[in-house]
Amino acid sequence: MSTASHAQSSIPLKQNGLQGKNPISATNKLQDTSKTKAGDTTKSVRDTTKKKGSGLQAEVSIIAVDSQKSEVAKNISHLYRGAKVKYQDFELSADYIRLDRNKKKIFASGIYDKTGKYVGRPIVIMGNGESPKTVDSLYYDYEKQEGNTYGIMTEVDGGYIQANIVRKNIYDEMSIYKGLYSTCNLPYPHTHFGIHITKGIVTKNQIISGPAYLVVMGVPMPVAFPFAFFPKPDKRASGLLFPSFGEDYTRGFSMRDLGWYLAFNDYWDSEIRGSLYSKGSWEASINTRYTVNYKFNGGFNIRYANTKTGTEGTRDYGSNKDFNVTWNHTQRQEANPGTSFSASVNFGTSSFFQNTGTGSTLNTYENLARNRMGSSISYGKVFADGKVNLTASLTHNQDMATRSIQMSLPNISLNVSSFNPFDSKDRVGEQKWYQRINVGYSFQAQNSVSTIDTLLFKPGGFKKFQNGFQHNIPISLSLNAFKYFQFNTSVNYTERWYLQSTRQRFDNTAAGYTQRIDTVQGFNRAYDYSVSTGLSTKIYGMYPKIGKIQAIRHVVTPSINLNYRPDFSDPKYGFYQQYNDQYGNRNVYSIFSQGVYGSPSAGKSAGIGFSIDNNIEAKVKSKSDTTDGGFKKIPILQGLTFSGNYNFVADSLKLSPITFSGRTAFFDQKMNVNFNGTFDPYSVNENGVRVNRYAIKDGSLARLTNFGLSFDYSLNPKAAKSRNNNIDSLRKEMSGAGMTPEQAQALARISSDPNAFVDFNIPWNLAASFSFNTSKSFNSSTRRMESQFTSTLNLHGDFSVTPKWKVTFQSGYDFKQKEVVMTSFNIYRDLHCWDMSFGWMPFGRYRSYNVTIRAKASILQDLKLTKRASSGGSYF
Predict the structure, then answer these.
(1) How many CA atoms lie within 13 A of 612 on its CB side?
(2) Taking the CB of residue 170, how many other CB atoms lie within 10 A of it?
(3) Which of 551, 544, 537 lies closest to 636 in space, CA to CA?
(4) Alpha-carbon dihedral 130, 134, 140, 142, rounded to 10 degrees
(5) How far is 806 from 796, CA to CA, in rounded Å?
(6) Do the strands 24-25 and 111-112 form a parallel or antiparallel pair, or are they unpaired?
(7) Which tens digits make up the pLDDT trace of 1-32?
(8) CB proximity list for 363: less than 8 A, separation 6 or greater
(9) Sign (positive/negative) of CA torsion 633, 636, 638, 640?
(10) CB-count exposure of residue 235 (10 Å: 0-12, 13-18, 19+)
(11) 147: nearest Cα among 116, 182, 113, 103
């Protein structure tokens, strides 16, 4: 006897379940099975029974979307198409499920459709937090809570385990037969590093394997194991970090990055590494990362290197001792609203990257081209409903070429939002003129030093710090005057407090006259003030239609201001003093000339400041742009500005140099051009000194003393936009909340890997930038003015040979030095679950190449094959 219905039933079944075999054909069901179309309304049968010998009772919901076949005599149910079985947290769905109540067994599989495609594979949810798993088929004894699963793939810590047969017991342990552990998520990995496991057991914390062998790209390798043990911890664990080996021309054979990984807890970990070279050089580093979800994250890296130079036993033999320290810290805004703390620190000896750069496997080009290092640690606090902002920071700037360092420890700033003191909260109507008066306040404090990196930590190095305090109160008023003009007037008061001042003199010694500068301790105040008032307006001009150009608009913004500042070198202020040199000449100097905020200016100023800004744009017809009536605006000239000042009370050289700057764009905004320069209206004498004689009297309108021009051009602007979006997206993820320490660590690795920024979706990109700067100065040897210039051309681009192959390059030319700048070529290959890269610097001091093959899985990031060669040596 048999019945068929679209039904939902309840039968007794123990919790747990797995998967079976032998898929069936959709056209090969039992002949007495009748079908009911999905969506038809039929009766629902509930059958609740108890397991013999047990007082427990459980209900199972079963659903068949297509049809249900029941063999009443054998107590077997067949469910077809969209069949589902649910028991508490356990769920099973497949296109065919057979339920045998007498034998207490379940079989589930997919079916072959009319085209011969295997569809409707079983999907299992175990209910213990695991993700759904898809299998080929399963066979399960729900009384013994045992069964076999056929054709399963599951993810384990970034890797994938596939097996022909898997048996799972009540202790949540799996026995596998003919399994494969791989980094690839394809049903059959086409490009992979894999380990074939004949038999094995998978428990919560380990994988125990019988005979196993290594397979690379489908080829069995001559590496086999009679048995193996793979730890599978549920958290990070400390362990050995394997080194890489190589040879360098200057340092000899090397063992690099041998170390130990320390997993303290879920919030922070460290890597301690060291490198040894056969010629005596060595390096050591400690890299620590920390994170607290929803609050902050960061890390620091301390590196030290002792590099031997020259040949042992010769005069040129010696050693360079270098160090570098980096620290990055980011605080989430929601962790402490109104308060911020961040750090970006990078300091060390200027020669660190030059002496150790070729040993780096990542960011070699950037490290070797680096000429500055900078650091900033800042803390911010907002008070009084956002009206008061306090910022304290520690800053450091280092020029690696000159080895000079500027440090501020600390730099404090307090800013009060501008306000209208004469306005009323209860005011009705527009402001009166005096209610528009605007007042602000700012306070700065700084303790800084400027020295050489080799002298900073010498005895007395920290005694060279200079400090000071500055108050600034700006008062301004802005009004509309005469309908077309904007009237602005302002008064600015600045006061400086110093704990040191200087005194200068000439001493007559046995070696001759020597200038002395003495530092005098004690509190001193210096202040200055200035007054300015001016007018500005806008003038619009339209030019008639020319060909396809419908109109040209020219906007001129002239402004003029009257300014006044007293002569603060007057003895009544006490800010300036004087001394006589060896020739009896009187020299005036400021006792605050070395102050961190400078000194009040010498000389009275009462003059006219002027500027004029120009913007020109055209409107042309556009077939592609249908907005704005089918017209497109094209900028011709953006921000061409001239500015200067005329001082009425100066005894000579009343007119200041005229500065100008501007920018424009060509080829549909693909090329951006910027330029700037300075015109000097006065002539110079035979010694190159400016004299009070206008250059126009000597036949020229003005002297061009300096000029700069730069442009950049991209043939594919979408590439730059895509790269910036990728980097921004990565940074947001790095600072995002809710990441586990493993995810944060993986993202940190990606951010330092150049492959992470190779966008295979952009087929090509070619970009160039050019910069040119020239200035005139007096050459005392030739006794005439001569021009000095710098000019460089940089090229960079990439193109995809295939969807999986990407080639990038970066080069340039220095026209002054007449040589090619540092050049690099890189080839990237996406191997699906692996990355391969080849980098080459063909010439120069750091000529080298490297080949790296790296697994994408985060658990195998240290599994890589690297071959490197520098000038005269190689890394393997």
Answers:
(1) 5
(2) 10
(3) 551
(4) 40
(5) 14
(6) parallel
(7) 343 333 333 333 333 333 334 444 443 333 33
(8) 752, 754
(9) negative
(10) exposed
(11) 103
- Which residues have CB under 8 Å from 41's CB, separation 6+? none
Give me Rg for the CA atoms of the chain: 39
Beta pairing, strands 703-714 & 671-680:
antiparallel
Q: Distances in Å between the alpha carbon of 139 and those of 100, 106, 730, 761?
A: 11, 6, 44, 44
DSSP codes joined into one string, 734-788: HT-SS--HHHHHHHHHHHT-GGGG--TTS-EEEEEEEEEEEEEEEETTTTEEEEE
Q: Cα separations (Å) of 669 from 76, 339, 448, 639, 673? A: 73, 40, 43, 16, 10
**What tens digit of pLDDT does each residue of 500-529 get?**
898 888 887 777 778 888 888 889 999 999
Structure tokens given for 528: 């200055």
Whether the CB-CB separation of 211 and 224 falls below 8 Å is answered with yes
459-to-287, 402, 454, 463, 464 alpha-carbon distances in Å:
30, 21, 11, 9, 11
Contact 305, 352 (CB under 8 A): yes
d(CA 405, CA 348): 10
Q: Do the beta carbons of residue 553 and residue 540 sit within 8 Å?
A: yes
DSSP assigned state of 546: B
CA distance 45 to 40: 15
The pLDDT tens digits for 222-252 are 777 788 777 766 667 788 887 877 666 677 7
Q: Indicate the pLDDT class of residue 272, thresholds 50, 70 and 90.
A: very high
C-beta atoms surrounding 89 within 10 Å:
11
Place of tokens 């060279």: 464
37-40: long-range contacts at Cβ-Cβ below 8 A with a sequence spacing of 24 or more? 38/6, 38/65, 38/66, 38/81, 38/82, 40/6
In one-letter notation, the amino acid at residue 170 is: I
pTM: 0.59
CA atoms within 13 A on the CB side of 188: 2
| Mean pLDDT value across the chain | 77
Which neighbouring-strand residues pair with 318? 309
Cβ atoms of 82 and 67 within 8 Å: the answer is no
Residue with tokens 């600015």: 492
Helix (H) or strand (E) run with residue 721 in it = helix 717-734
Euclidean distance between the first and the last CA atom of the chain, given in angstroms as a whole number: 74
User: How far is Cα 606 from Cα 649, in angstroms, rounded to an integer?
Assistant: 6
Contacting residues for 29 by C-beta, under 8 A, at least 6 apart: 69, 78, 80
Distance of CA 478 to the CA centre of its chain: 41
- pLDDT single digits (tens) 631-678: 778 888 888 899 999 988 888 889 999 999 988 887 777 778 889 999
Q: Are 743 and 775 in contact (CB under 8 A)?
A: no
Residue 363 region, left (φ>0) first, then alpha (ψ -120 to 50), else beta? left
CA 825 to chain centre: 22
Contacts of 148 (CB under 8 A, 6+ apart): 18, 19, 20, 21, 138, 139, 140, 165, 166, 167
Lowest-pLDDT choice from 321-325, 700-704, 766-770, 836-840: 836-840
pLDDT in tens, 345-403: 888 887 787 777 644 444 454 555 556 778 888 999 988 888 899 999 988 888 766 77
What is the spatial distance between Cα 316 and Cα 306, in angstroms, rounded to a whole number? 16
Q: Counting beta carbons within 10 angstroms of the beta carbon of residue 566, is it exposed (0 to 12), middle (13 to 18) or buried (19 or more)?
A: middle
Report helix angle 741-751 to 717-734, nearest 10. Answer: 150
From the list 353, 375, 374, the residue with the least C-alpha distance to 363 is: 353
Q: Are 385 and 416 in contact (CB under 8 A)?
A: no
Q: From CA 498, how far away is CA 493, in angstroms rounded?
A: 17
Residue (of 876, 832, 874, 863) closest to 157 by Cα position: 863
